[in-house]
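Exercise 7b. Backbone tokens:
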């Protein structure tokens, strides 16, 4: 390959990477640092550490004692402030949701040495969203603790205020299932995206291109109203799905979800519709077998690359469904012997 060819290849790869980074869904976190008298602490170093990956954002307070991390990923964080002449202060368990502006309020520093430290868990009453958007979220913890028959992420949405699901049954994930969702009275102008990328078929706006399995979902967030202009495309609410990423430790899971008609009670109609042998009509076939696995962790080579396991991670998940659900029973009129011979004198309206 010539030098010009190599240059063009590097340029094309750079442009592709830039496009990929632009698809990330980011959040922000703000706060302020003051002393015991309420005066701002200026130029205080502030670190924001992402629990799980160990990635650290660095910042400092301004002349008003305020600090801001405008572009961060959703996750759980620890904020640490270490200023000369003061005891270091750390706040743990700060949960930042996707597409959210989170504030931790004021951090008060006490005189002391930076080698002395004080660690406190976050007080939910003191941390709140800085933006006025009307939004709700379903976290991976909610998904893990709630049992859903069909393992369909769209089926979780009706748990949120203002959301109505008109689907009568969700036995399996359905790409057109988003069309059954109504949010604050709106069903035709909902924007559905995954990791910041719109996931709707352009011709219908009510069919998803792709639905991740629920074991790979970190968060489902719904912005109902009063959100920023950056969330465009559709005039209605915004549904955002954030998928999981790997952490510093290797984790994995596997499951088998089995459903069979033997576990179901027979219907009243079947119990009263006897077969020629005098027994009840058997239950309809209802068989689903869902196989799922997920694995995630760091990509590193001991003593060679990514030694601290803070820069490169992977996450892989797959779900396969095998099902046997025949069509419901139908009553069909069969011609009599006379009718097959051309005699319709005894043919009456079939009700």
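Sequence design result:
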């Amino acid at each position: 390959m010539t030098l010009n060819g190599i240059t063009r290849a590097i340029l094309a790869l750079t442009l592709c990477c830039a496009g990929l980074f632009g698809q990330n869904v980011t959040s922000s976190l703000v706060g302020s640092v003051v002393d015991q008298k309420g005066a701002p602490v200026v130029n205080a170093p502030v670190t924001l550490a992402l629990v799980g990956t160990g990635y650290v954002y660095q910042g400092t307070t301004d002349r008003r004692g305020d600090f801001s991390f405008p572009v961060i990923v959703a996750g759980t964080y620890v904020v640490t402030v270490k200023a000369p002449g003061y005891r270091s202060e750390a706040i743990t368990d700060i949960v930042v949701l996707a597409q959210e502006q989170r504030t931790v309020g004021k951090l008060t520093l006490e005189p002391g040495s930076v080698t002395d430290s004080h660690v406190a868990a976050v007080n939910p009453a003191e941390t709140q969203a800085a933006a006025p958007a009307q939004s709700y979220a379903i976290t991976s913890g909610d998904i893990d603790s709630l049992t859903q028959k069909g393992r369909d992420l769209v089926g979780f949405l009706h748990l949120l205020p203002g959301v109505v699901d008109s689907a009568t049954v969700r036995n399996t994930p359905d790409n057109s299932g988003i069309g059954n969702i109504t949010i604050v009275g709106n069903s035709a102008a909902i924007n559905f995206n995954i990791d910041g990328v719109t996931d709707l078929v352009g011709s219908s706006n009510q069919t998803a291109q792709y639905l991740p399995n629920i074991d790979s979902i970190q968060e489902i967030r719904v912005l109902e109203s009063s959100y920023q202009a950056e969330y465009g495309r559709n005039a209605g609410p915004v549904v955002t799905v954030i998928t999981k990423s790997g952490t510093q430790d290797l984790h994995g899971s596997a499951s088998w979800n089995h459903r069979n008609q033997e576990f179901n009670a027979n219907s009243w109609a079947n119990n009263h519709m006897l077969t020629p042998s005098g027994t009840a009509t058997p239950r309809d076939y209802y068989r689903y077998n869902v196989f799922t696995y997920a694995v995630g962790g760091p990509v590193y080579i001991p003593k060679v690359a990514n030694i601290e396991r803070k820069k490169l991670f992977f996450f892989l998940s797959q779900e396969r469904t095998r099902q046997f659900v025949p069509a419901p029973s139908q009553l069909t009129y069969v011609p009599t012997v006379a009718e097959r011979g051309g005699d319709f004198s005894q043919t009456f309206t079939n009700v």
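Instructor comment: The longest strand covers residues 287-298. Confidence is low (pLDDT under 50) at residues 13-24.
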